[in-house]
């Protein structure tokens, strides 16, 4: 079944199911710094390289860098703006509260060096599109020929009071104690809630299923209710996936309430609409709601997201592209970000003079659902 975010195409899968350190590209052929020229210091015709600034150090940013190296070679010089030193494979953080190893982390500078890219540890701030200058939060100005906004992401915020709102940057800290309380029999009724239209609901199902499995393994009594605006479980993946997940929920004893939205008027009490049904539980875990980054110098649509076309170009801009959670594409997923990054990279490579015919972004979601037992793919 389609599901989890895919690692970049250059990431190899490690023995525990996560990727080992991403390596320089492999699609139809193996690329290396020497195969492309020692470093991207100039174009094949001896002119200055095409300057590409990529804001971010995410899956999509690495995918875009890999694709640019493959498509444009030394025609481009890539600079990554990334505030953190490491690339974290975030889809696996959901396992951490259940005493699994922490999500894998990779030194971003080493990956970039493999790809002949420069990394600057700074955050993107705003853009002067007319002058083609990207500004960092620290006040530095970087000229560009093409700008790709990738790791700006959506901004999670707490939309419900009296709940634990999941933050994958500190999910172990948030939920480890809750899982211990389940094991000890102190929590007997638990609700997992998607507070609005779920842009990426998979972690909610994973947390519910893994918690149910942990309760079973420790002979703890636990009632789990999963409440979501979706008509069917993981409806974004189609009827076949929904049917498979419905069976998993039923086997785990998880009650799903679909086509619903929730209010939490006080601790441990939920009001479920439509119907004003009341539910009392011991704890409530919710996904965050999301806002776009609302970048100064760029257009935005509802809730601050960046509008993009099928080539990942920002609406009204010929040299600025965006991919990932910051865009107005409704599904927020690392695999989608990588596909958008590929579309953007092809268009940028063409601008740089590479013999490339850009193709539009055609979204496909692949991956796996973590359950606490055998993952479902």
Structural description of this entry:
This protein folds into two domains: 1-154 and 292-377, FAD/NAD(P)-binding domain (3-Layer(bba) Sandwich), CATH 3.50.50.60; 158-288, FAD/NAD(P)-binding domain (3-Layer(bba) Sandwich), CATH 3.50.50.60. Residues 1-42 have low confidence and may be disordered. The chain is elongated and about 70 Å long. Helices cover 22% and strands 21% of the residues. It has a five-stranded parallel β-sheet with strand order 5-2-1-9-20. A five-stranded parallel β-sheet has the order 11-18-12-13-14. The chain has helices spanning 59-72, 108-114, 171-183, 202-217, 239-252, 334-351; strands spanning 50-55, 76-81, 86-88, 105-107, 118-120, 124-128, 133-136, 141-143, 146-149, 155-157, 164-165, 189-193, 223-227, 254-257, 261-266, 269-273, 277-280, 283-286, 289-291, 320-322. With 377 residues, the chain is of the alpha/beta class. α1 packs parallel to α6.
Furnish the topology, listing elements before pairings.
Elements: E1 50-55, H1 59-72, E2 76-81, E3 86-88, E4 105-107, H2 108-114, E5 118-120, E6 124-128, E7 133-136, E8 141-143, E9 146-149, E10 155-157, E11 164-165, H3 171-183, E12 189-193, H4 202-217, E13 223-227, H5 239-252, E14 254-257, E15 261-266, E16 269-273, E17 277-280, E18 283-286, E19 289-291, E20 320-322, H6 334-351
Parallel strand pairs: 1-2, 1-9, 2-5, 9-20, 11-18, 12-13, 12-18, 13-14
Antiparallel strand pairs: 3-4, 6-7, 7-8, 10-19, 15-16, 16-17
Q: Under CATH, the topology of the largest domain is which?
A: FAD/NAD(P)-binding domain
CATH superfamily of the largest domain: FAD/NAD(P)-binding domain
User: How large, in whole angstroms, is the Cα Rg?
Assistant: 22 Å
| Helix content percent band | 10-25%
| Main pleated-sheet profile | 5 strands, parallel
């Amino acid at each position: 079944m389609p599901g989890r975010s895919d690692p970049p195409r250059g990431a190899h899968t490690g023995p525990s199911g996560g990727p080992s350190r991403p390596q320089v590209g492999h699609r139809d052929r193996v690329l290396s710094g020497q195969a492309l020229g020692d470093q991207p210091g100039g174009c094949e015709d001896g002119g200055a390289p095409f300057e590409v600034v990529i804001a971010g150090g995410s899956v999509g940013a690495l995918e875009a860098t890999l694709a640019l190296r493959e498509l444009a070679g030394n025609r481009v010089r890539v600079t990554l703006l990334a505030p953190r030193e490491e690339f974290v494979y975030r889809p696996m953080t959901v396992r951490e509260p259940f005493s699994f190893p922490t999500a894998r982390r990779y030194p971003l500078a080493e990956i970039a060096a493999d790809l002949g890219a420069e990394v600057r540890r700074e955050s993107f701030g705003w853009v002067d599109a007319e002058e083609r200058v990207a500004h960092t939060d620290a006040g530095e100005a970087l000229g560009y020929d093409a700008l790709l906004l990738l790791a700006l992401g959506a901004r999670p915020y707490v939309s419900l009071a009296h709940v634990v709102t999941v933050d994958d940057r500190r999910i172990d800290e948030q939920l480890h104690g809750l899982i211990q309380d389940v094991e000890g029999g102190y929590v007997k009724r638990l609700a997992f809630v998607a507070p609005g239209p779920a842009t990426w609901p998979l972690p909610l199902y994973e947390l519910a299923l893994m918690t149910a499995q942990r309760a079973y393994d420790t002979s703890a009594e636990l009632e789990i209710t999963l409440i979501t605006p979706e008509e069917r479980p993981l409806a974004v993946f189609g009827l076949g996936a929904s049917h498979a997940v419905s069976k998993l929920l039923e086997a785990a004893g998880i009650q799903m309430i679909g086509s619903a939205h929730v209010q939490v008027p006080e601790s441990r009490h939920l009001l479920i609409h439509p119907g004003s049904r009341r539910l009392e539980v011991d704890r409530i875990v919710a996904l965050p709601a999301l806002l776009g980054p609302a970048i100064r110098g760029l257009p935005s649509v509802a809730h601050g997201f960046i509008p993009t076309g099928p080539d990942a170009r920002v609406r009204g801009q010929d040299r600025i592209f965006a991919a990932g959670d910051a865009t107005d594409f409704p599904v927020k997923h690392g695999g989608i970000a990588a596909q958008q990054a590929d579309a953007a990279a092809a268009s940028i490579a063409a601008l740089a003079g590479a013999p490339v015919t850009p193709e539009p972004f055609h979204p496909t979601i692949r991956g796996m659902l973590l359950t606490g037992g055998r993952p479902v793919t």
